[in-house]
Amino acid sequence: MNATAYQEKTRASVKAEGERLWLLLQGLPKVKACKPTVNFILLDISGTGYSAALFREKLLQRQIMIRDCSNYPGLSTGLRPGCCKVPPMIIDALLAALQAVLKGEYKGMTKIILVRHGETKWNLLGRYQGQTDIALSDKGLQQAQMLAERFAFPEISAAYSSDLQRAYKTASFVADPLFPARN
Predict the structure, then answer these.
(1) Is the dihedral of CA 163, 167, 170, 174 positive or negative?
(2) CA–CA dist 120, 123 (Å, integer)
(3) CA gyration radius, the chain
């Protein structure tokens, strides 16, 4: 196939994919898809209640990346391009992600954050602690406070630790502000 034929075939494929996606997007609530004229589709998300940044972030959590064109001149704040040349097998994933985000059912991927306890006096001495219940040093308490500041966001839904005071105290710096009823 020569270059011209390949380009024409690609243009036709992009157009067909765009038309199919546009038709499927018509069934989504709160989103208006503008008919594609190039290799992307503009979405009016003003009815969703999401900012463009939050909408994009929620789709990124579903492994769907859309282009942020908030700096494109002439676009209203609710219009955002998305989905450059989406292969047919991705269209279903994109629609599922959009539906979940719009229904508010998707809370994001499960993330597991592993954290080691703050410093103890035995850490400074290079002593193995094992199951010996050694308290945090002053520096360890500062480290736990810094950890709490780092993870001070509501996406954490559970915190677990061992019953050793160094681990429990480190975890409590993070968990206590997030789960006050559990204290």
Answers:
(1) negative
(2) 5
(3) 25
